[in-house]
Backbone:
């Protein structure tokens, strides 16, 4: 009898431990990390895909901009390393927005005028300030200028070490995160449930679904494509100098390697006669 | 080590100037004729690397200050919009400065561990060592205040956590905190004074570096064998060209790492929360300092009592200055101290583990590990060092630097 009891207790304990283990594993599965995507701008020689940035901008303009600000100057859209619009295109685009002039006119009135390339994108018309947006959603939609830089997730040991190494470097966490969030609305009955958002309860209801936007270049109008394209666009918006940075970096590194090599042999030559 | 300079300028105008201000003689005796132990390894290159980093930080910092606006409303935009998007190569200067801070600390940690390993703090270098600890402390203050300037979400949270430490002081704590903040919480006035101090402190550091180098040139450098120079002819080589070329090579290699950070992984060491503008109503879910302050943060959190935690935090730095009197072993280099060498590496591991713990959300288990490591940290200084001074059986040390070098050579030739 006692033996039976012990066996029962032991198996109960075993089952409990197993259940706890499963629960733990499940908890991890419920809060998965954003999957790592292939980005054209990753790696030492990565550059932005202009067509992708233009598509991403289209998604932003037609959709995200209804609620999210993007405080970057219009002119950057025509600058090298960006979506590659022409200056004339940007002038037309800027003029299609009404911006509030920074200074009042001679009569002391604050006035609106058509935008110029030097202006920043104005805030969404519906939400003139964060408080107005927060009142509508419970939480203000973040400005998208640095969104891709403000999102990181724990990589854990040893991955965070590898992430710094040449050839393995991982700097596209923000783009992966945005992409994951947009693809993370997996419960059709709850538009504010997100697989990748911490705690799953996200203030932003599912913003975009298949076919919401008609691409002009024949790219299939799928949620997956919208998500990738707008993530790439926001990665550019947060880091518009990425291409130039990597280009200069390559020259700097080459120079330093040659310099260090020459210095090494000079040092060897000078120390040759000295025992040390 | 350096007596009166025997330097005689070649040109007449040089001799005229030298008779009135012997500046060239000072440079000559300090950086050309200055005798350097011939057995130095690359661990001794970090003094030069640190000098370069200090100059780089001041140069980039001065440029950033030309565009930065120290106001709670505008600081964030002046960096993320003006400097990063509008100023020509502003992004480059800013990435040099933020990553430069990290590399400055990386270099200073290697420099300090070098000092522990080879006993560089021992007589006659106590003052040299203490000056180094002062520089390190000033660096931490400067870095902390610099981290507040971007006025991101983590800047505000970090400033709040650290300045709140003074409120732990009994009786006057709260008043002191208000005085420090210039208000009832960290805000615009705090940002403004931190900016002022962040600009001032690097020059104080530079002054202490000058004293540090001066003290170094009085006592001479320690070396991997830890025996003092006896015969300048046999034991040393001239600073130029020998140390100059070696240090220059080391600086070039270090700059490869620096360039990698700036150009390819510039955001790797930056906290994502600092890309969100500071908002007193929203605190990041997990407040962490920069990596170089993490071990101290872990010590602070390991102690359940706030005041005791603050005391432990400062004690962890003050104890560094006492090391020359805690370790009384006559043998300097860990090369000849097998037991000390073992504990040195244990200490390194403890510091790394503390750093990792500082970055984690504390759980009961992790707090326990942090407490054990905190005991280990202080134990290394307060128990192991004094104890080993008397009970350790050290290996025989070479009679001179020249002997150490020459006994090494035949073995190398055979191999």
Residues:
């Amino acid at each position: 009898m006692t033996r039976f009891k012990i066996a029962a207790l032991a198996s109960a304990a075993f089952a409990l431990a197993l259940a706890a283990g499963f629960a733990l594993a499940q908890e991890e599965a419920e809060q998965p990390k954003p999957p790592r995507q292939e980005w054209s701008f990753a790696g030492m020689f990565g550059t932005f895909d202009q067509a992708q940035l233009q598509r991403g901008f289209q998604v932003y303009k037609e959709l995200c901009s209804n609620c999210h600000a993007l405080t970057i100057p219009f002119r950057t859209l025509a600058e090298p390393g960006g979506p590659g619009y022409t200056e004339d295109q940007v002038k037309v685009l800027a003029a299609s927005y009404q911006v509030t002039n920074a200074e009042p006119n001679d009569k002391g009135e604050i006035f609106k005028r058509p935008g110029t390339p030097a202006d920043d994108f104005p805030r969404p018309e519906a939400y003139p300030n964060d408080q107005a947006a927060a009142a509508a959603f419970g939480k203000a939609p973040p400005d998208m200028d640095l969104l891709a830089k403000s999102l990181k997730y724990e990589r854990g040991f040893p991955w965070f070490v590898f992430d710094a190494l040449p050839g393995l470097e991982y700097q596209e966490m923000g783009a992966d995160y945005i992409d994951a969030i947009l693809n993370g609305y997996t419960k059709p009955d709850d538009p504010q449930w997100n697989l990748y958002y911490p705690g799953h309860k996200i203030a932003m209801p599912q913003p975009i679904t298949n076919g919401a936007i008609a691409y002009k270049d024949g790219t299939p109008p799928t949620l997956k494509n919208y998500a990738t394209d707008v993530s790439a666009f926001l990665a550019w918006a947060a880091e518009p100098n990425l291409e130039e940075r990597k280009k200069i970096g390559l020259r700097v590194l080459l120079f330093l390697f040659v310099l260090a090599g020459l210095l090494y042999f000079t040092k060897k030559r000078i120390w040759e006669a000295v025992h040390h | 080590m350096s007596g009166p300079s025997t330097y005689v300028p070649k040109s007449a105008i040089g001799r005229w100037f030298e008779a009135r201000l012997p500046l060239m003689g000072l440079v000559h005796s300090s950086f050309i004729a200055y005798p350097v132990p011939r057995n130095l390894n690359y661990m001794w290159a970090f003094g030069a690397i640190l000098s370069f980093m200090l100059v780089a930080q001041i140069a980039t910092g001065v440029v950033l200050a030309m565009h930065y606006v120290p106001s709670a409303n505008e600081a964030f935009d002046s960096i993320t919009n003006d400097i990063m998007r509008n100023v020509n190569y502003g992004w480059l200067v800013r990435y040099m400065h933020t990553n430069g801070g990290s590399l400055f600390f990386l270099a200073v940690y290697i420099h300090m561990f070098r000092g522990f390993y080879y006993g560089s703090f021992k007589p006659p270098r106590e003052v040299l060592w203490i000056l180094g600890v002062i520089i390190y402390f000033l660096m931490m203050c400067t870095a902390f205040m610099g981290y507040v300037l971007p006025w991101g979400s983590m800047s505000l949270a970090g400033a709040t956590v650290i300045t709140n430490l003074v409120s732990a002081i009994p009786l006057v704590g709260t008043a002191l905190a208000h005085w420090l903040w210039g208000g009832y919480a960290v805000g615009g006035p705090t940002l403004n004074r931190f900016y002022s101090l962040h600009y001032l402190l690097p020059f104080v550091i530079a002054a202490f570096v000058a004293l540090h180098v001066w003290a170094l040139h009085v006592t001479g450098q320690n070396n991997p064998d830890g025996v003092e120079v006896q015969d300048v002819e046999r034991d040393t080589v001239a600073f130029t060209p020998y140390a100059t070329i070696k240090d220059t090579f080391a600086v070039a290699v270090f700059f490869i790492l620096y360039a990698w950070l700036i150009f390819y992984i510039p955001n790797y060491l930056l906290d994502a929360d600092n890309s969100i503008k500071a908002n007193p109503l929203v605190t990041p879910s997990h407040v962490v300092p920069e990596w170089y302050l993490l071990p101290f943060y872990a010590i602070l959190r390991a102690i359940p009592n706030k005041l005791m935690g603050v005391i432990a935090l400062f004690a962890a730095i003050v104890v560094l200055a006492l090391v020359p009197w805690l370790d009384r072993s006559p043998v300097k280099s860990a090369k000849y101290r097998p037991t000390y060498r073992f504990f040195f590496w244990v200490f390194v591991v403890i510091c790394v583990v503390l750093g990792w713990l500082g970055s984690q959300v504390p759980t009961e288990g992790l707090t326990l590990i942090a407490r054990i490591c905190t005991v280990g940290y202080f134990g290394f200084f307060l128990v192991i060092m004094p104890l080993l001074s008397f009970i350790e059986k050290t290996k025989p040390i070479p009679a001179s630097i020249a002997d150490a070098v020459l006994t090494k050579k035949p073995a190398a030739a055979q191999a």
Observations:
- The longest strand of chain A covers residues 98-100.
